[in-house]
UniProtKB/TrEMBL annotation:
Residues 47-79 are annotated as: Disordered. This is Tetratricopeptide repeat protein. Keywords: Signal. Residues 1-26 form the signal peptide.
């Protein structure tokens, strides 16, 4: 048997074994409570009651049955250079309900990329004010918001 065939067969068997483990764990968990357990070793489906509690810092559970929050989708659209119109709408919706300095900063970044310099500056000033109020934790956002205000001001003058 040629060596390349051996490697392909071994890789296929390994992949099939991983899929059977995930399938077996998915059958054992309740249908409505599936989560994706991500740790440094592997990904597996598990129910919330079967999550190990020994190492909570190394594992992150993501609920697969609920959609992500709008601010996460907006940040994804912004970071991956997708259409920014829905991202801006999601951020405006989120900030109208409960404005936070990190979400306001993301909205100002989106507005700046959409060439709405006045709106970006206004929102960045709001983010700056909220970040200053939460100063010990938000030192980085104070600097980011201040830079965003300055950048929007310069671009608006051009």
């Amino acid at each position: 048997m040629p060596i390349s065939t051996f490697y392909r067969t071994t890789l296929f068997a390994f992949g099939a074994g991983l899929l059977s483990i995930v399938g077996a764990q998915a059958q054992n968990s309740p249908a409505g409570a599936k989560t994706l357990m991500a740790n440094s070793d592997a990904f597996a489906l598990a129910s919330p009651s079967s999550q190990p509690t020994a190492e909570p810092a190394t594992e992150a559970a993501v609920n697969l049955s609920t959609p992500p929050p709008p601010e996460a989708s907006a940040s994804f659209y912004d970071d991956s250079h997708k259409d920014l119109s829905p991202a801006l709408a999601w951020m405006q919706e989120t900030n109208s309900i409960a404005p936070t300095y990190w979400n306001l900063y993301t909205e100002s970044r989106i507005r700046l990329k959409m060439k709405d310099y006045h709106g970006a500056r206004t929102v960045a000033e709001q983010a700056y004010k909220l970040a200053v109020k939460a100063m010990p934790v938000s030192k980085e956002y104070v600097l980011l918001s201040a830079n965003m205000v300055a950048q929007a001001h310069l671009l608006a003058q051009k």
